[in-house]
Amino acid sequence: MSQAVRVVWDDALVSYDFGPGHPLAPVRVELTMALARDLGVLDGAEMTGCVPATEDEIALVHNRDYIEAVKNVSKDGRPDLRYGLGTEDNPAFRGVHEASALVTGASLAAARAVWTGEAEHAVNVAGGLHHAMPGAASGFCVYNDPAVAIAWLLSQGATRIAYVDVDVHHGDGVQAAFYDDPRVLTISLHESPRTLFPGTGFPQETGADGTAVNVALPAGCGDTGWLRAFHAVVPPLLHAFAPQILVTQQGCDSHALDPLAHLMLSLDGQRTAYAALHRLAHETAGGRWIAMGGGGYELVQVVPRAWTHLMAEALGRPVEPSTATPATWRTYVRERTGEIPPLTMTDGRHPQWRDISEGYDPADAVDRAVIATRKAVFPFHGLDPMP
């Protein structure tokens, strides 16, 4: 088992709700926590609540005029399109400031626990809202909780933080917040911006001293290619950068069933990635790991199982993939959503990949993406870009 692990949760986190029909439905985290409890994953875990982030904490990343605009929208639910509040992606709603500040506060609670040594790992599955910009809402994200948590760590004296984002969408907001800050290494593995929002995340976006890293994967990429790309880029860079803390965003919208994107990962491939990130936290960051949720829009079949695996991995008690989902949880899912729940914790896949050190194929789109990224950033870190 890992040393002390914090799972940050408050039932009020489901108040981050853009309304009926919006893809980012809070039921996804509600079902996640219910599955983790019913499966016994949270037995013995250090569960802790959270308080909303203060305006000063939010202002570590966001402009004051933007925060004021969010607060004004929060009072009456009237849109303010100057700041991206009231769009189809980011509908205005009463209480949006309070809900967004609470999500940010949960990620700050996770960061504080790890920074102070109260916990080795900390998880906030409600967090990971990585698209919000300093002065605007974007991509379902109002306040950028990963960026605020990283900025807070820097304010406390951290000098080397690595952020790895495995969401299917480019982690553009976090990259933008630290693009010129060599203290923060941001690595994003995502579907190519040529085929998916937000249209950024090309390998040539390298930031300060090669500390912005982007792996733009082709639509249709599945477990084998994705894991090959991950292992060709992430471990060498983390070992070279030697962060004090590893912060990760585990958006699970890379799954084949996700309705908003075009990668083809299985739940088993995603679970394999979580295990790799856990190992890398111990190998490169002294075990200090802050993990967050993120995107994921297959609300019943994917998100609850993926992030239950994430919490189990962080707790050092991985769930056997063939484990049946609890009958109590399946009943709850049917009553809560009317949908048929998954019966087991696996998609029945057994992900395997070939390491790029064994050679690469220039005709393969995944290998071309990997080499483009390695050529763009590896020399900054004293690494050979070629396998």
UniProtKB/TrEMBL annotation:
It comes from the Bacteria. GO terms for biological process: acetoin catabolic process; epigenetic regulation of gene expression. The keyword Lipid metabolism does not apply. One of its GO terms (molecular function) is histone deacetylase activity. Keywords: Acetoin catabolism. Belongs to the histone deacetylase family. PANTHER family: HISTONE DEACETYLASE HDAC1, HISTONE DEACETYLASE HDAC1-RELATED. This is Acetoin utilization protein AcuC. It comes from Microbispora rosea.
